[in-house]
Structures are given as structure tokens and as C-alpha cells.
Amino acid sequence: MYSLSDRTTNSPRGELLSTVRNRNEQQDASAGLFTLLTGTEMKDHHRHQLWLLVIAAAVLLTGLHTTRLWDQDEGYFASTAAEMHAQGDWIVPTFNGELFGHKPPWMYWMMMIGYELFGTSEFAARILTAVFGVATCLLTYHLGRRVFTAEAGWWAGLVMASCLMFNFVSRAATPDTYLTFFSTLALYLFAVTGPYRARPETSSTSEMAPSLSDVLPQRWTHFVAIYAAMGVATLVKGPIGFLFPMAVIGLFLLCTTPRRELDASAPRWRQWFEALRPFGPVNFFQTIWRMRIFTAIAVILLVAGPWYIAVGWKTNGVFLQEFFGVHHFHRFSTPMDSHKGPFYYYIVSILVGMFPWSVFALPTFLLVIRHLRTSASSQRGLLLMTCWASVYVVIFSLASTKLPNYILPAYPALAVLAAYFYQYWIDNPASVHRFWPRIALGILALVGMLGLIGLPLAGAWQWNGQTLLDRVGLASDVQSQLAWFGLVGAPATIAGCYALYLAEQGRSAAAVKCIAWTGVLSIFGVWNIAAPQIAHHQINGRIGAAIQQHVTEASPQIAEFGYFPPSLSFYVRHRIDPCSDKEATQQFMEDAGPKLLITTTDGYESLKGTLHEDVAVVEKLDRFPEKGQIVILYKGGSSPQRTAHSPSKSEPPIR
């Protein structure tokens, strides 16, 4: 049933892979500029980058303006950047007029640049995130090209551009894409100045356990560049910006520590001791020293330190206490915001997040394990990518708070490993048992059919007078559009069936292209066809527009009772006072001066009998995605424009 033959180890194909990689390194090291610009390899290099740029731009840069901000994270971060931009403050993040110690400033700086160029809008908040997403796809291509071959690099970049999670995050006003880019940049610089730096023609790159001097960068400036990238990553998301990439490099160096040869008659305990010696304390501290730990500290402090010092000084240390104490230590030790999960959480997250490419996850895993043991020509690259992915997945699996975007910096390594399998299948179609394409491509078609048929049925098929989506509280007008959303599953359904046909014919390259088209078309359809249908149901923008009229006319005080999604601050662009209970809300409305109150149907019903006659309902909006309505109440000296009459006990209930 299972067969993944090792034909790349002792076959002409294995020699070809080694020859192609050595030729790339020799060209990078010694070929003149004219040769590089006119040679066939460089033409392929440009062609790959051009097409990858076009595809990544098509799926990441289009439709950024078609939806309102998505809560929670986008609402928090875009609102914080908008406040910083309005105040001209590049140091202290604030949300709704209060200190916001969740993240360092890089993401806010990028959004502030977007606001300066395009105005304060959803597009401006997201555009530079998407640009860095495109750059990460190109960087992943170069990583795969240097570690394996240009063809593997092409597939790796395409995996990044068309997999579900990276695409979703790269179109959002959040920090994870920036972190992924700079973490990838640091590890790419390590790879090309260390284990994959250009070497003389006589050097060998096929050893599994080279000396540390062979895999470490040779120049001080190389270390500075690596740690400078980590320093910027530290400005993106704090200590994980340098701790995790350094852990990846350290683990890789430990795994490549040369082992001493033992006699065949050596006792078993001695063999175990020698196998574990690279991970012992002596070699551990020697490895840290060889990584130039003091250079790392100096460079990272030079890059990131000034802002941390400035924000600590301007906030009397309160920001640093909240940032490090709550959002690092506490998140690791205790589940926050109900974001918890079992130990296998990130395994499931990767399978979903890397769809459609993850349909071959199991055979990819088996091939990587086998070639780590047997394929000398690819061992070092597989080891580096495996260490990279393992550090993020294992450490975050130990953390109490879990979110799928936490391991996004592992996606470039996972994409390169996936590309390694797909290129192996293309080059050796008979070496992958037909069982694997039948299962994987069948799953691809099945997932497509679940979307194509399941989404419309979930909003139409009734059981005991309720649809499935009624039971989870989704608004009925949203359910009515799910028939159109189901069309997003069409590419996976069609491509899965056609790719299976191609695989049965032995045309593995064409089957892989079908998977690529599935990812590109599905994601493009989600963001440019399906998502705009949801946009007009998002009400926070309309709440902001309604409130802006009265803020401009009378500068009222604004409060909320039972409804405060973070994006509301972005659209209202005014401080919103929270009212924790009915009594506080009544006191707010009774105080002198013009007032605006944002509340829910339930909140309004509980207050209606206590409101004065000069309180008017100025807007009623259907909630999204929940059922019910949002009600905006106004109290002022003059009669406002109303969409409903002043509330009274005879007023019919709001649905």
C-alpha cells in the first residue's frame, strides 16, 4: 500500500539534484554579471519571480477595501494606529484613549504610513501587511531555491501565496505577517551565509554532520545582518522575534555537531551517550558562544532598544509591565480570552491553514523522515526546515494560550517541505504509491463538495423549524446568501476530480498544477466574490457614520452599554465610555450635556422605561453575525434627525 522509494539517493536523479544545486552555488560565487544575466538558470530565476509576484499580488493585494475591519484583532490594532496617527505619537500605543500594551510599534508604524498615504481606511490599514505578504512569498521562493532547487523554490513560494492561513493573515491589519517576514529573513540570511553559502567547486555539501565552522556564517557582518533582522522582528512582536529564530539556528547547529566514530564492539550505553552528546550542556554553551551571543545582544538592543526605552520612560514603565508580564508570561502560562486547545491543536491548525496543499501532509511527513536518514544530497536542507518548523510548533504547543496565527513564522519552512514532496512526486511519479494521490485528491474534492453543497444546506435545511445556522445564532439575512458562498467550493471540487484523473495517468506535474489553481482561485473567490457580500452586513461602519453627524454638530459624550467591538473605536473616532451595568448607564444619560449611547436590543429594552422624553432613537441596525439589533440613543438640547420616534412604553419591541 505504501511506497516512497529512495530514488534520489543513489539514482541519476539524485546526482542531478546535487549537480543543479552545486551549479547554482558556483554561479552565485564565481560567475560574472554578464553570465548571470544571460544564462538559462537566471532566466528561469526571473521567470519564477515574475509569475510568483503576479500570483501573490492577485490574491493578496486585491479586495483589501471590500470589507470592514474584522474584530477582534483588526479592530484593536487599526484603531490603535489611527489614534497614534491622529495624535502624531509614534511611541505610545493607545486604544480608546487608554494605554494599549499588547504589541510593539512596527505594525502601528506601517498602518500610520498607510493612513498618511491613503487616508484612515481599511485599505490603508491592510495594504502594507499585504505587501510584506507578497515579499514573504518571494523570500520563501529564494529559500527553497537555495536549500533545494529553483523548481522546489517555485512550488514553495506558490504554497505560501495560495495556502489558507497565510493568505488570511496577510490580508489583515495584524502583526503576524511582519513577524513572519523578518523571522524568515533572519533564517534565510543564516542559510545563505552559513550552510548554503557559495563554496569553491572542490567543497562537498553532501555531508550530514559537517563541522560547525562549515555551517556557521564566516563574517562578522553576516551575523550583524542576521541579528538586525531579528531586532526588527522584536519591534514587531517582542522577544519571540529573536528567541525563536535563534532557537532554530541553535537546534540546527546542535543537530549538525560531528559525532565521534565508535567501534562496533562499543557498549550500547556508550552509543547512546555519543548520540546525545551534541545536546549536552558543554556543546550547548559552546554552540551559543559560536553564535556570537554578545553580538546578538548588542545588535538587537541597538535596533529595538531605543523604542522600548522611550515607551518605558514615557509611561513610567507601565507599558513594559503590561507587555511583558501580561501578554508574554501570562499568555504562556494561562489561557487568555478563552484561546486554549489540546496538545494536537497546531497539527489540526496546520492541516487547515495549509489547505489545499496539506492534503498530501502525511506522505510529505513520511518522505521527509525517510530522506533525513538516507538522502545525503538533501539531508541538510531537510534538517534545517524540520528544526525551523519544530521549534515553533513544539514551543507553542506547550503554551496555554493557543491561536492558529501564532505559528505563522513556521509556514515558510512547512511550505519548503511541502514543495520538496511535490517536486519529488513530479520527478519520480512511480515512486509515490497511487494510494496517496487517491486519498489526498479525494479529500480535496470532498472538501470542495462540502462547501459547494454543505454551505447552502446549512442555511436552508430545517430541523424542528430551525436551520443548522439558526442554532448557532447566525442572522437569517446572512444565511440566505450562503448559496452563493458555496460556489467558492467549486474550484476544489473540479480540480480535485481532474487532478485525480491526471494522477492516475501518471501526469503528476499537471496534478500539482491543479492543486495550485485550486488554492489561487478559491482564495481569490473568497476575497473578491464572497467577502463583499458580507461587507454590507457589517454595521460598525454605519454606526460610526451615524454618530459622526452628532459628534460634529454638538460634540456629545459617547458611551456604550453591552456592545463594544474594538472596531467601533476605529469608526466612531471618539472616546467611548463603557457602562458596565444598567445603573451606570442611567447615570450617564441623566448627566448634563449632549449624550450618545450605543446599546443592544436587550440593553434598550431594559432602559426604555427609565429614559427621559428628550432621549431619541437615531438609528437601529441589524447585528452581524448575531440576531437582534444595535440601537443608538441621543440626548441633546435640540431635536436631532431621527430614524425612529422618541421611546415610550407604547413603542413596539425591537426585533
Task: Explain what this protein looks like in three dimensions.
The protein is mainly alpha-helical. The chain folds into 3 domains: about 10-195 and about 210-260 and about 270-340 and about 350-430, no CATH class; about 435-535, no CATH class; about 540-635, D-Maltodextrin-Binding Protein, domain 2. About 65% of the residues lie in helices and about 5% in strands. It has a 5-stranded mixed β-sheet, with helices on both faces. The longest helix is centred in the C-terminal third of the chain and has 28 residues, at about 510-535.
- The first-to-last residue Cα distance is 59 Å
Instruction: Characterize the overall form.
Output: globular
Please mark out the parts with pLDDT under 50 across 5 or more consecutive residues, or reply none.
Answer: 5-41, 200-207, 639-655
Number of strands: 9
Helix-and-strand structural type: mainly alpha
Tally of DSSP helical segments: 30
| Structural domain count | 3
Query: What is the percent of helical residues?
Result: 55-70%
